[in-house]
Design goal:
The chain is mostly helical. The protein is built from six helices and no strands. It has helices spanning 8-19, 22-44, 46-54, 59-69, 74-85, 89-98. Helix 3 (46-54) packs antiparallel against helix 4 (59-69), helix 3 runs parallel beside helix 5 (74-85) and helix 4 (59-69) runs antiparallel to helix 5.
Length: 108
Amino acid sequence: MNIHVPTTYEIYRGWQSVQGSGLEIGTALLLGLGMAFMLGLLAFLLPIFIACQRGVHNAAVVAVVNCTLGMTGIGWVVALVMACVMETDARRHARLRRAEQATFLTVP
């Protein structure tokens, strides 16, 4: 009676052919989680990017509201509205040259 006892390498190769290599699965999972994290971070910081791109006068206020209250969802929407509605630097300088009365929010 001849009984074959598989070696560790044979067991590993058999398992690898069924499941794929652990390195490939782990790498794909890590890359997927990394991409999801980066997209989530980009979406979370979107109001700050919009405020900086528009040249909002008080972009720091938008950043503080977004970073402190943004995780609630409502705070993120408030920061997004602030970034889209607040007065830009160019409009503020033009208003100050004309000596208009100051307002917190102006429609762009």
